[in-house]
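[Discussion] Sanity-checking designs against the backbone

I'm trying to build intuition for which residues belong where. Below is a C-alpha coordinate string of 267 positions. I'd appreciate it if someone posts a full sequence so I can compare it with mine line by line.
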Protein backbone atom coordinates (compact mmCIF):
# COMPACT_ATOMS: atom_id res chain seq x y z
CA UNK A 1 0.00 0.00 0.00
CA UNK A 2 1.47 3.29 -1.02
CA UNK A 3 1.52 6.46 0.97
CA UNK A 4 -1.51 7.94 -0.90
CA UNK A 5 -3.75 4.97 -0.17
CA UNK A 6 -2.70 4.95 3.47
CA UNK A 7 -3.65 8.61 3.82
CA UNK A 8 -6.99 8.04 2.09
CA UNK A 9 -7.82 5.14 4.31
CA UNK A 10 -7.07 7.25 7.37
CA UNK A 11 -9.37 10.07 6.17
CA UNK A 12 -12.21 7.66 5.42
CA UNK A 13 -11.87 6.16 8.89
CA UNK A 14 -11.82 9.59 10.53
CA UNK A 15 -14.91 10.77 8.64
CA UNK A 16 -16.74 7.59 9.57
CA UNK A 17 -15.88 8.10 13.21
CA UNK A 18 -17.21 11.68 13.14
CA UNK A 19 -20.41 10.55 11.42
CA UNK A 20 -20.89 7.82 13.99
CA UNK A 21 -20.46 10.30 16.82
CA UNK A 22 -22.98 12.68 15.25
CA UNK A 23 -25.44 9.88 14.79
CA UNK A 24 -25.00 8.88 18.43
CA UNK A 25 -25.61 12.45 19.59
CA UNK A 26 -28.74 13.01 17.50
CA UNK A 27 -30.61 9.75 17.04
CA UNK A 28 -33.28 9.86 14.40
CA UNK A 29 -36.81 9.49 15.72
CA UNK A 30 -38.36 6.31 14.26
CA UNK A 31 -41.04 6.94 11.64
CA UNK A 32 -44.57 6.96 13.03
CA UNK A 33 -43.70 8.34 16.48
CA UNK A 34 -45.93 11.19 17.70
CA UNK A 35 -44.56 14.65 17.06
CA UNK A 36 -43.72 16.47 20.27
CA UNK A 37 -44.69 20.16 20.46
CA UNK A 38 -41.74 22.53 20.17
CA UNK A 39 -40.25 23.38 23.56
CA UNK A 40 -41.49 26.67 25.02
CA UNK A 41 -38.83 29.33 25.38
CA UNK A 42 -37.47 29.00 28.89
CA UNK A 43 -36.07 32.05 30.56
CA UNK A 44 -33.28 31.23 32.96
CA UNK A 45 -32.08 34.81 32.99
CA UNK A 46 -30.98 36.05 36.39
CA UNK A 47 -32.94 39.13 37.42
CA UNK A 48 -31.30 41.78 39.56
CA UNK A 49 -32.84 44.01 42.22
CA UNK A 50 -30.37 46.90 42.40
CA UNK A 51 -29.45 48.83 45.52
CA UNK A 52 -29.35 52.61 45.66
CA UNK A 53 -27.79 54.90 48.26
CA UNK A 54 -27.46 58.66 48.41
CA UNK A 55 -24.26 60.31 49.55
CA UNK A 56 -24.01 60.24 53.32
CA UNK A 57 -24.18 63.40 55.36
CA UNK A 58 -21.38 62.04 57.54
CA UNK A 59 -21.46 64.24 60.60
CA UNK A 60 -24.70 65.64 61.93
CA UNK A 61 -28.21 64.63 60.97
CA UNK A 62 -28.46 61.42 58.94
CA UNK A 63 -29.60 61.90 55.35
CA UNK A 64 -32.40 59.67 54.03
CA UNK A 65 -34.30 59.62 50.71
CA UNK A 66 -37.95 58.64 50.95
CA UNK A 67 -39.27 57.15 47.71
CA UNK A 68 -42.86 56.10 47.09
CA UNK A 69 -44.35 54.11 44.26
CA UNK A 70 -47.79 55.01 42.91
CA UNK A 71 -48.31 51.81 40.94
CA UNK A 72 -52.05 52.02 40.17
CA UNK A 73 -55.29 52.33 42.11
CA UNK A 74 -55.69 55.16 44.59
CA UNK A 75 -53.71 57.45 46.90
CA UNK A 76 -53.09 56.91 50.60
CA UNK A 77 -54.17 60.18 52.28
CA UNK A 78 -52.41 59.19 55.53
CA UNK A 79 -49.05 59.34 53.77
CA UNK A 80 -49.76 62.25 51.45
CA UNK A 81 -51.12 64.52 54.20
CA UNK A 82 -48.18 63.68 56.47
CA UNK A 83 -45.69 64.61 53.76
CA UNK A 84 -47.48 67.89 52.99
CA UNK A 85 -48.25 68.96 56.55
CA UNK A 86 -44.79 68.08 57.84
CA UNK A 87 -43.13 69.51 54.72
CA UNK A 88 -41.19 66.32 54.02
CA UNK A 89 -39.48 66.15 50.59
CA UNK A 90 -39.97 62.86 48.75
CA UNK A 91 -39.56 61.26 45.33
CA UNK A 92 -42.77 59.76 43.90
CA UNK A 93 -42.72 57.18 41.10
CA UNK A 94 -45.96 57.33 39.10
CA UNK A 95 -47.37 55.16 36.31
CA UNK A 96 -49.61 56.29 33.48
CA UNK A 97 -52.25 54.02 35.02
CA UNK A 98 -52.09 55.82 38.36
CA UNK A 99 -52.11 59.27 36.73
CA UNK A 100 -55.37 58.50 34.91
CA UNK A 101 -57.30 57.84 38.13
CA UNK A 102 -55.69 60.28 40.59
CA UNK A 103 -55.93 63.82 39.18
CA UNK A 104 -56.59 65.35 42.60
CA UNK A 105 -53.50 63.80 44.16
CA UNK A 106 -51.42 64.79 41.16
CA UNK A 107 -52.60 68.37 41.68
CA UNK A 108 -51.33 68.21 45.27
CA UNK A 109 -47.94 66.93 44.12
CA UNK A 110 -47.68 69.61 41.42
CA UNK A 111 -48.72 72.33 43.87
CA UNK A 112 -45.64 71.52 45.99
CA UNK A 113 -42.66 71.36 43.64
CA UNK A 114 -40.44 72.24 46.59
CA UNK A 115 -41.46 68.94 48.23
CA UNK A 116 -42.18 66.45 45.47
CA UNK A 117 -40.01 65.10 42.70
CA UNK A 118 -42.11 63.02 40.30
CA UNK A 119 -40.39 60.22 38.40
CA UNK A 120 -41.28 57.42 35.98
CA UNK A 121 -42.75 54.11 37.23
CA UNK A 122 -43.79 53.03 33.72
CA UNK A 123 -46.90 52.98 31.60
CA UNK A 124 -48.80 49.89 32.69
CA UNK A 125 -46.83 48.62 35.70
CA UNK A 126 -45.16 45.83 33.76
CA UNK A 127 -41.76 44.55 34.97
CA UNK A 128 -38.89 45.91 32.86
CA UNK A 129 -37.54 42.51 31.86
CA UNK A 130 -36.82 41.96 28.17
CA UNK A 131 -37.43 38.20 28.06
CA UNK A 132 -40.72 36.38 28.64
CA UNK A 133 -41.08 35.55 32.35
CA UNK A 134 -43.16 36.39 35.40
CA UNK A 135 -42.11 38.40 38.44
CA UNK A 136 -44.27 37.90 41.56
CA UNK A 137 -46.89 36.51 39.18
CA UNK A 138 -46.85 39.62 36.94
CA UNK A 139 -46.02 38.97 33.28
CA UNK A 140 -42.86 40.86 32.34
CA UNK A 141 -42.60 43.14 29.31
CA UNK A 142 -40.95 40.20 27.52
CA UNK A 143 -39.01 41.99 24.77
CA UNK A 144 -36.79 45.07 24.31
CA UNK A 145 -39.60 46.72 22.33
CA UNK A 146 -42.06 46.22 25.20
CA UNK A 147 -39.53 47.52 27.76
CA UNK A 148 -39.07 50.65 25.62
CA UNK A 149 -42.85 51.11 25.42
CA UNK A 150 -43.24 50.73 29.19
CA UNK A 151 -40.60 53.41 29.83
CA UNK A 152 -41.63 55.82 27.06
CA UNK A 153 -45.35 55.34 27.71
CA UNK A 154 -44.83 56.30 31.35
CA UNK A 155 -42.84 59.42 30.43
CA UNK A 156 -45.32 60.47 27.73
CA UNK A 157 -48.21 60.31 30.20
CA UNK A 158 -46.22 62.36 32.72
CA UNK A 159 -45.44 65.09 30.19
CA UNK A 160 -49.08 65.18 29.07
CA UNK A 161 -50.10 65.60 32.72
CA UNK A 162 -47.83 68.63 33.09
CA UNK A 163 -45.00 66.88 34.94
CA UNK A 164 -41.41 67.82 33.98
CA UNK A 165 -39.36 65.30 31.98
CA UNK A 166 -38.49 62.43 34.34
CA UNK A 167 -34.82 61.52 34.86
CA UNK A 168 -35.26 58.40 36.97
CA UNK A 169 -37.06 55.15 36.19
CA UNK A 170 -38.16 52.44 38.57
CA UNK A 171 -39.83 49.43 36.98
CA UNK A 172 -42.71 47.47 38.47
CA UNK A 173 -41.37 45.00 41.10
CA UNK A 174 -37.97 46.83 41.04
CA UNK A 175 -36.44 43.77 39.34
CA UNK A 176 -34.72 43.91 35.95
CA UNK A 177 -32.79 41.85 33.47
CA UNK A 178 -29.25 43.26 33.12
CA UNK A 179 -29.82 43.95 29.42
CA UNK A 180 -33.01 45.89 30.19
CA UNK A 181 -31.00 48.04 32.63
CA UNK A 182 -28.55 48.86 29.83
CA UNK A 183 -31.43 49.63 27.48
CA UNK A 184 -33.21 51.97 29.92
CA UNK A 185 -29.91 53.68 30.72
CA UNK A 186 -29.42 54.27 26.99
CA UNK A 187 -32.82 56.02 26.97
CA UNK A 188 -31.36 58.65 29.31
CA UNK A 189 -32.56 57.38 32.69
CA UNK A 190 -30.92 56.45 35.92
CA UNK A 191 -32.62 53.47 37.55
CA UNK A 192 -33.88 53.79 41.08
CA UNK A 193 -33.05 50.85 43.30
CA UNK A 194 -33.38 51.22 47.05
CA UNK A 195 -31.60 50.15 50.22
CA UNK A 196 -34.43 49.73 52.75
CA UNK A 197 -37.70 47.99 51.88
CA UNK A 198 -40.16 50.01 53.96
CA UNK A 199 -43.40 48.12 53.37
CA UNK A 200 -42.73 45.00 51.23
CA UNK A 201 -45.20 45.94 48.54
CA UNK A 202 -47.54 47.55 51.11
CA UNK A 203 -48.08 44.11 52.62
CA UNK A 204 -46.40 44.53 56.03
CA UNK A 205 -48.32 45.18 59.26
CA UNK A 206 -47.88 48.75 60.53
CA UNK A 207 -45.50 47.75 63.34
CA UNK A 208 -43.23 45.90 60.93
CA UNK A 209 -43.14 48.95 58.66
CA UNK A 210 -42.05 51.04 61.64
CA UNK A 211 -39.23 48.57 62.35
CA UNK A 212 -38.05 48.77 58.75
CA UNK A 213 -38.02 52.56 58.74
CA UNK A 214 -36.30 52.69 62.13
CA UNK A 215 -33.46 50.59 60.67
CA UNK A 216 -32.65 53.27 58.05
CA UNK A 217 -29.23 54.87 58.34
CA UNK A 218 -27.37 57.80 56.84
CA UNK A 219 -27.50 57.49 53.02
CA UNK A 220 -30.37 55.02 52.82
CA UNK A 221 -33.08 55.10 50.16
CA UNK A 222 -36.40 53.76 51.46
CA UNK A 223 -39.04 52.33 49.12
CA UNK A 224 -42.74 52.23 50.07
CA UNK A 225 -46.12 52.56 48.40
CA UNK A 226 -48.50 55.50 48.41
CA UNK A 227 -51.31 53.83 46.48
CA UNK A 228 -52.86 51.45 49.04
CA UNK A 229 -55.12 53.50 51.34
CA UNK A 230 -56.85 50.41 52.76
CA UNK A 231 -53.66 48.63 53.86
CA UNK A 232 -52.32 48.74 57.41
CA UNK A 233 -48.84 49.40 56.02
CA UNK A 234 -49.73 53.02 55.21
CA UNK A 235 -50.48 53.74 58.84
CA UNK A 236 -47.00 52.49 59.70
CA UNK A 237 -45.46 54.61 56.94
CA UNK A 238 -47.12 57.79 58.22
CA UNK A 239 -46.02 57.07 61.80
CA UNK A 240 -42.50 56.22 60.62
CA UNK A 241 -42.09 59.50 58.74
CA UNK A 242 -42.93 61.37 61.95
CA UNK A 243 -40.50 59.20 63.92
CA UNK A 244 -37.64 59.88 61.49
CA UNK A 245 -38.39 63.59 61.58
CA UNK A 246 -38.30 63.51 65.39
CA UNK A 247 -34.83 61.91 65.15
CA UNK A 248 -33.67 64.91 63.14
CA UNK A 249 -33.30 63.11 59.81
CA UNK A 250 -32.52 65.28 56.79
CA UNK A 251 -34.89 64.16 54.00
CA UNK A 252 -33.59 64.43 50.44
CA UNK A 253 -34.95 63.77 46.96
CA UNK A 254 -33.05 61.84 44.31
CA UNK A 255 -32.68 64.92 42.10
CA UNK A 256 -31.02 66.91 44.89
CA UNK A 257 -28.14 64.73 45.91
CA UNK A 258 -25.40 62.56 44.37
CA UNK A 259 -26.13 58.87 44.58
CA UNK A 260 -24.64 55.48 43.90
CA UNK A 261 -26.54 52.50 42.54
CA UNK A 262 -25.19 49.04 41.78
CA UNK A 263 -25.73 46.78 38.73
CA UNK A 264 -24.90 49.70 36.40
CA UNK A 265 -28.05 51.61 37.35
CA UNK A 266 -26.49 55.04 37.88
CA UNK A 267 -22.92 55.94 36.93
ZN1 LIG B 1 -45.13 49.60 41.59
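Best answer:
Here's mine. Compare freely.
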Amino acid sequence: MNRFLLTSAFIVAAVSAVQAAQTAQAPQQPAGWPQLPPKAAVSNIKLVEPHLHVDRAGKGAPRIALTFDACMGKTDPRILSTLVEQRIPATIFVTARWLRTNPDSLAVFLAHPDLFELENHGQNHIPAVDVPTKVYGIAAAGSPQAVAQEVKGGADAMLTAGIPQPRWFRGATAKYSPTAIMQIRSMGYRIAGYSVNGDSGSLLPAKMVEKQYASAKDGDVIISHINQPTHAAGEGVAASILALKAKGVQFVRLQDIPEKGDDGTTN
